[in-house]
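Trying the structure run again after the queue cleared.
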Amino acid sequence: MRRWLYFSLAIFFGLLIASWITHGRGVIKNDPARVARMRSNGALFMREAHAAGLDTGNSKGLGILPVMVGTSLRVGKMTHRLFERGINASPIFSPGVPINAARLRYFVTSEHTPDEIRTTVRTTREEMDQC
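Done. Tokens:
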């Protein structure tokens, strides 16, 4: 019974993911400006982050952007403090990355506004200085 359930769930989720991918390709094909906006927003995040003195590692600025923080304790504190200020950043720490190479991961989309991106970078800098 358990094997059947796992097998059924695996098929269901596989089909669900395939459906999402197909839909996503259609969205990109029908609205290529969306990809251009996402790339533009990623480039803006990178420019603002570098101007604020934030280390973005070797990111190319294509949607998923890291800000290097250092220790796992610091990234945990920063994640919590940023969330309290309305910013959702994913903490990435060991063993996902080397020890003392923890980072915040931001997902920048085509729907973010330049003001939201600038506020996020400014707030991240402020919290980096506090933690």
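The chain has four helices and three strands. Worth checking whether this holds up in the mutant runs.
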